[in-house]
Write a structure and sequence with these properties.
19 helices; 77% helix; mainly alpha; Proton glutamate symport protein
Length: 441
């Protein structure tokens, strides 16, 4: 093979890599959808390629939580940890409440479901976790088992306790050998974090193939009929999420608090947003969300290392809107009018149940079962709306991940943990076709 022949594929690869990954994934999304619509169920043969992408992302969740949380602890004093943690949890609670209120407002305004005939369906009742179950579930009996089983809240708790203990020992000890040992441990964590970011970049390169396969298989097997049939439900939920993202995230948080262009924020968060829309999992998107926070939004690890893993579990703004609208939709289908008391129950249940629901595909149907049970609506409705769960899950998860990054940005602003002169904030551009770099580089 001549030098010229060898250089052709290399030039093609270089040109391919020069295109920002977000655009390559977007093209894969569109092509996968088209292939699925044309090939139908035959596109299901591509499922393993999409499943591999999901597994690669899931493989990174626990290691990223452990390394980024511990790395963040190095920069946090115990007093600052309390401030960062308190602000993060308070903002998550506030935005979820706002989301649920918006969901009920748009549902009452557009009144979806009045013209839909309830055809029945099957559903299995799910008992809501009690307060004690939620609290006790945070503290694992076996920390290693919690990590192996992917119990994110329990893993976060263990890592925070251990990291905080290391920080306290580092501040209080007078023994140089202990100081050196702790510093060496944190240096190892920093090196491991950078290695994980390299892996994330490689996974996202494969994500072009993975996204194509996921969309082709999903559209080919599920079809578009359910989306057309329940278009009103999808439309109202989409409106609610658009209002929440525009007013709460881009308006109040980006412009009002950060004082920055909302387009800059969207530019910095779009990788995570597209990934979330594709795979329908806040937890699965976490590797990409962390990369966006570090590389594009320039949030300090001491802020995003705590807030993003926690947000992937408890910040369910999109799910709150989705559930609020769906309950009103369900009530209209069976001819039941929800009074103010019923809607207050829906509001409270949506906010509380989000803490105990995992950020994974299908969790929305579990939440819906719980909420329908709370207001006395037939659980069979879950089976009726399950046909549009893929699209509802996608737009809700996109909202959740956007909220995670918005909250992390605001907490960074309030704690001097964000560099608003660099990344997308500096000149409005986003690195494309390059590997991510640390915020301080």
């Amino acid at each position: 093979m001549t030098t010229t022949q060898q250089s052709v594929p290399r030039r093609i690869w270089t040109q391919y890599r020069s295109v920002p990954i977000i655009y390559r994934i977007a093209v894969a999304f569109v092509l996968g959808t088209a292939v699925g619509a044309i090939a139908g169920e035959r596109a299901g043969v591509l499922s393993p390629f999409g499943d591999l992408f999901l597994r690669l992302l899931e493989m990174l969740i626990i290691p990223l939580i452990v390394f980024t949380l511990l790395g963040g602890m190095r920069k946090l004093t115990p007093s600052k940890l309390g401030k960062v943690g308190g602000l993060t949890v308070a903002l998550y609670a506030a935005t979820t409440t706002i989301a649920a209120v918006i969901g009920l407002a748009v549902a009452n305004l557009f009144d979806p479901g009045t013209a839909v005939e309830f055809t029945g369906g099957e559903a299995q009742q799910a008992e809501p976790p009690s307060v004690s179950e939620v609290v006790l579930g945070i503290v694992p009996e076996n920390p290693l088992a919690a990590m192996v089983n992917g119990e994110i809240l329990a893993t976060i708790f263990v890592v925070i306790v251990f990291g905080l203990a290391l920080a306290i020992v580092r501040e209080s000890t007078t023994e140089e050998s202990i100081e050196d040992a702790i510093d060496g441990f944190f240096s190892f964590i920093d090196a491991g974090t950078q290695a994980l970011f390299k892996i994330v970049w490689g996974v996202m390169e494969y994500g072009v193939v993975g996204v194509f396969a996921l969309m082709a298989a999903a559209i080919g097997t599920e079809g578009l009929g359910a989306i057309v049939q329940l278009g009103a439900l999808v439309g109202v939920i989409a409106i609610g999420i658009a209002v929440h993202m525009t007013v709460t995230y881009l308006g109040l948080m980006t412009v009002g608090i950060l004082g920055q262009s909302p387009l800059a924020f969207l530019n910095g968060a779009k990788d995570a947003m597209l990934t979330a829309f594709t795979i329908r999992s806040s937890s699965g998107t976490l590797p990409v969300t962390i990369t966006d926070a570090e590389t594009n939004l320039r949030i300090d690890e001491s802020v995003y290392g705590f807030g993003l893993p926690l947000g992937a579990t408890i910040n369910m703004d999109g799910a709150a809107i989705r559930q609020a609208v769906t309950v009103v939709f369900a009530a209209n289908m069976v001819g039941i009018s929800l009074g103010l008391g019923d809607q207050l129950i829906v509001l409270a249940t949506v906010i509380l149940i989000s803490i105990g629901t995992a950020g994974v595909p299908g969790a929305g149907l579990i939440m819906l079962t719980v909420i329908l049970n709370a207001v006395g609506l037939p659980l069979e409705i879950v089976g009726f709306v399950a046909g549009v769960d893929p699209i509802l899950g996608r737009i809700a998860t996109t909202n959740n991940v956007t909220g995670d990054l918005a909250v992390a940005s605001v907490v960074g602003k309030w704690t001097d943990g964000i560099d608003l002169s660099a990344g997308v904030w500096g000149d409005g551009s986003q690195p494309g076709g390059e590997e991510p770099v640390a915020a301080g580089d």
